[in-house]
Amino acid sequence: MLVSYSWLKDFIDLDQDPKDLAEKITRTGIEVAGVKHPEEGMKQLVVGHIIDCEPIAGTHLNLTHVDVGEDEPHQIVCGAPNVAAGEDVVVALPGARIAGNVKIKKSKLRGNESNGMICGLQEIGFPDNLVPEKYAKGIYVFPEDADVKPGQSAFAPLGMDDYIFDFDITPNRADTLSMEGSAYEVGAITDTPVKVEDITLKEDGPDWTKDFAVEVDPELAPKFYLRKISNVKIGDSPLWLQRRLWNAGIRPINNVVDVTNYIMLLTGQPMHSYDARAFKTNKLVVRKAEKNEKLTLLNNKKVDLDPNDIVITNGEEVVMMAGVMGGLNSEIEADTTDVLLESAIFDSTLIRKAALRHANRTEASSRYEKGVNWDATTRALDMAAMLLRNDASGKINEGVITGSSEKRQPVQIKTTISYINKVLGTDISSTEIAAIFSRLNFKAEINNDELIVDVPARRWDVAIPADLVEEVGRLYGYDNIKSTQPVLAETHGGYSKKEEAIRRIKNIVQGQGLIEAISYSLTSLEKAIGFSQEPKKPVEVQMPLNSNRSTLRQNLMTGLVDAASYNMARKQNQLAIFEQGRVYDFENNTYNEHEHLAALYSGNVYFENWQNNNEKIDFFYVKGQLTNLFLALGINTDDVEYKAEVIMYMHPTRTAGIYIKNKYVGMIGMLDRPVTQSNKAMKDSEIYGYELNLDVIIPLILNPHTTAQTAPKFPAVERDLSILVDQEVTNQAVEDVIKENGGKYLHDLRIIDVYRGSHIAEDKKSFAYRLTFLNENDTLTDTIVNEAITSIDSSLEKQLKAEIR
Amino acid sequence: MDLFDRLKELREKGLDEIDKAKNEEKLNDVRVKLTGRKSELTTILHSMKDIDPSDRREVGQRVNKLRDLFNAKLDDAKNEIVAALVEEQLAKEKIDVTLPGREMHLGTKHPINIILDDLEKYFIGMGYKVVQGPEIETDHYCFEMMNLPKDHPARDMQETFYIDSEDLLRSQTSGDQARVLEKHDFAKGPLKMVGPGKVYRRDDDDATHSHQFMQMEGLVVDKNITMGDLKGTLELMAKHIFGQDRETRLRPSYFPFTEPSVEMDVSCFNCNGKGCSICKYTGWIEVLGAGMVHPNVLENAGVDANVYGGFAFGVGLDRFAILKYGIDDIRDFYTNDVRFLEQFSKEER
């Protein structure tokens, strides 16, 4: 809502600096997003009277002489199509500054000296959408009633000397979507009395109520009043009214439409005027639209009406989308003589949805959706009627037709002074509280601690004691409330066990040099179900912004791959990134969220270096990082198993499922070639990664408890073992046999070499292991170790057909 | 030849040989020759019985003295040789210490999580529990329980991602308030919680809008919580995040789940309140929304609003990070450009 400072002065005595006042309003009530002073940045714009105006032959230009209040008229060349002798216009004198910081100088045009410029409104800062249509393509001409004199500043007559507050109104304070409401608010803030005038209307036309029928569904329009004004003469509104409209951000149209807009700005009550010719049926019906009904709106938009739109009809055809915008078929036109004037309240939700549905939000609809003053409906109607008589010389027909007139119970709130102080943490006296309610123009009765407040209908946001606390608090001043800390029984703060575990895990992988990423949870359906062992039922949103953000991810890897693609397209090929977050699915008839961890690596372990130590990231580097993570979490590596598996989007022979204690916890591997090859940036890169389901892992690592053990005192014995096995025998199979047969002193087992190649048979490979034996309580003898080795050897030979080398 | 002369001769020759031995091997040969079991000195000592008894004492003393001399000289020579070897080795091993080391990636936290962790630790220290709720939330908890009536604009399909008629991607973390309020046993003490997490809104992504972002909810409920407590709590938090010399102020605002509702501004850390483009020439930057818990929210969760009351606040973590680090495009948080992310490693706390 744009609130004019000079208009506010109609209601309150104000002498504050407008910017200081704006600050005060922001602190106490409504955020003032800005204060605009239209003349700012402009100078030497005066009123000029065009004495004569002759076309310059062979051009579209005119040579004018303009009285600008100086001894001699100024000769000015003007190209506007609507320039003519006798007009009062805006002249930028030589030395003037107009919009866009443009300076006006004396100049010569086609050999004619031009001492200044005759301005259009756009040239002096008016936005296009506020300029009255007839001046849209030319200079501005003051109307006859403007009462301007040559040489006077043009700022005041155009309202450019005003200060305009941009009220950023929260949904609860729609009462300030009117000048009267704003005046009450500013009056309360500045502790200044507010004068809001009522009117007594004298009707001077015939009684029309017997000849016209109105049918209203009160569910759709709880209040609906209609008046008829005859014999109007359509023309321009007086300048003072136009000024107020454009300073409020509304374009002046004609003296009828302007009045309805003006009254809406004044009272907050949206008004509508119909050409009475649209109601030859002598009937007006308020109802919901029917299927297939259509309407062309005033802005020429053709609308297919929805059965939930409220419409106004003449009993035969729709003439308005109620509360939103009128139809072209009932528009006030130049030859309109009789006007039906409507003041009504429509259901706020239906109006909001209609405006949204048809993408046609208006000043009226936005007021209806936030609520309007229940007490202003008929008053606004009468005020508009009076203005139509004044500005458009209409006759006000006798009588108001009431279509509906639902009553609302006045709001009375009972509370206590002590409750207000308790919530605010203050010690405000009952006298001060009484004063605050008097500033608000609320009737308040105080008996000792008891407080009874009658809330005027114009403040429909105030309904419960907590609302009164807010009114007192803000006017008392939040700055005046002392800052304290809650004095409470002691509470123990902290994370949940699960959150603690997640944080531990994140710290470890971060310590491994991984950069944390955060991706979008919403992705495409295809990506959402990729990278998993077996996709679950995906969760899709009903109205996605686009197909790339339609489905909740079931894996984090897809986000990291997107990040890899983005980075690699920017030549960042050395990547080590991770994400910890949730994945989502629908299973067992419920929506599920699981905490996951995923990491992605590409490039080399080290950055490029002079030693050419460029160890490439491979499966085993990433697996080693994962092993370190498990070790750090206290997971026994013997419990972890990797099984070659085929997983969507992962390399079919370089990918493993990871199992801990036989539970599937995730996967590790290389991105499948088709995934990288199809992406220009990732083409030819080997990208590795892993993804873990922390919901499975965390229960295994909760409550780690370490009972300290002294380091072994007896020496360990190391033996190396080299064997030849068939190609398809896995390391895991060999290790299993060794561990099973290594006896109780086998302390550690490590594979130290794998060989395939020319020195051995094609279908064979060689493994070398280092076995460490240790007896915690005694020195090991060779005999014991040899026995273990013999047992291992024979088992390997027997079970895996291994050849001991 | 006189035995004494012979000893003199041995002395000169021996010293000369020690001098000439330039490596450990040769020196060892000399040691054997001069002082070994088969050396002349040993032989002399072993044949004392053949010497004139009157000279025996003198000869014995001289031989021992000479052997001590040889040993001392041999040791010195050996030390010199070893020292020279070490010297040579060190010269070989010399490196250019100005050459760069091998670098690996430096792990970093995401900037939003730096802010989040900082806030969480701060509030944990103040006795708050960190509570996590579901991101796939019900209409009931996200809106109904939070005093947003059925026809509230936030509940439109246009504004919120609905999954079905009842389930949605939460557009605010406030649902966590309702869940915790329902479960909390006030007989066991007051409720103090913060609830961080991802939220989603049906906004097209641009420099200032993101369909996904992160919030943190705070809630304190007990019998005597005041707006002064809210003010004090928020002030301390703002100073913790934005600096001790920041000033704060509260302004009236509106949220369906609090009454009174306020927004908090922090004095602009760029211009210190003088006015600049970051604070839109107001000197103040809006940082969060807060208020006293609306009685309907308490009653909806079965908490007697006549007895209990409290305050709540909601922090936009993306916004905090944007303000704190001077980020001008919210999408930077989610494109995960490593060059952008790496710069925050020094911000870890």
Automatic annotation (TrEMBL), chain B:
GO annotations of cellular component type: cytoplasm
A Pfam family per the record: tRNA-synt_2d
Superkingdom field: Bacteria
Family: Belongs to the class-II aminoacyl-tRNA synthetase family. Phe-tRNA synthetase alpha subunit type 1 subfamily.
Source organism per UniProt: Lactobacillus kimbladii
Upper lineage: Bacteria, Bacillati, Bacillota, Bacilli, Lactobacillales
Cofactor note: Binds 2 magnesium ions per tetramer.
Ligand binding (Mg(2+)): 259
Protein's name in the database: Phenylalanine--tRNA ligase alpha subunit
Signal peptide limits: none
